[in-house]
Amino acid sequence: MTKLLEWISVISAVFAVWYSLIGGYVKHPMIEQNMNLIIVSPIIFIILFGLYAVAVVLYRVFTFNNCEDAAKELQAEILEAKKDLHDRGLRW
After folding, report:
1. Transmembrane ranges (predicted)?
2. Residues in CB range of 39: below 8 A, 6 or more apart
3. What is the predicted pLDDT for the residue at 77?
4. How far apart are CA 8 and CA 14, in angstroms?
5. pLDDT at 38
6. Taking the model in full, what pTM does it have?
7. DSSP character at residue 88
8. pLDDT of residue 8
9. What is the pLDDT of residues 21-61, one digit of tens each?
10. What share of the chain is helix, strand, coil (3-state, %, to 5)?
11. Contact between residue 18 and residue 42 where contact means Cβ atoms under 8 Å apart
C-alpha cells in the first residue's frame, strides 16, 4: 500500500466518523454538548497537520548530514570527466 493510499484511507475514515457525528446519526449527550468543537475539528486537524509538517521539515533540515567525502569524490569525478572531454576534443 502506498503512502498516498494510506493517507486517503485514513482521511476517508475520519471524514466518515465526522460526518456521522455532524449528521446526527450518533446520539449522545456529550456529542450534543461539544457540537461546536466537532464542527471546527477539521480546521483544527489541518492546522495541526501543518504544524507537524513544518516541524518535520525543520528537523530534517537541521539534522541533514554533510557528506564531505562524497563531495570530494564527486568533484574528482567532475574534473576527470572534464579532462576526458578535453582529451576527446571538446573545448569550452
Report:
1. 6-26, 38-62
2. 22
3. 95
4. 10
5. 92
6. 0.61
7. T
8. 95
9. 999 888 889 988 999 999 999 999 999 999 999 999 999 99
10. 80, 0, 20
11. yes
Cell 509538517, residue?
53
**Alpha-carbon torsion 62, 68, 70, 76, what sign?**
positive
Amino acid at 32: E
Half-sphere exposure of 39 (CA within 13 A, CB side): 6
Cβ-contact 38, 22 below 8 angstroms: yes
Give me the torsion for CA of 51, 52, 58, 59, rounded to 10°.
150
Residue 73, amino acid: E
Q: Which amino acid is at 35?
A: M
- Which residues, 6+ apart, have CB-to-CB distance to 91 below 8 Å? none
DSSP element (H, E) containing 90: none
Give the distance from CA 81 to its chain's centroid. 37
Q: Whole-angstrom Cα distance, residue 12 to residue 6?
A: 10
What separation in angstroms does the CA of 61 have from each of 16, 48, 58?
Answer: 36, 20, 5
Of 21, 25, 47, residue with least CA distance to 36? 21
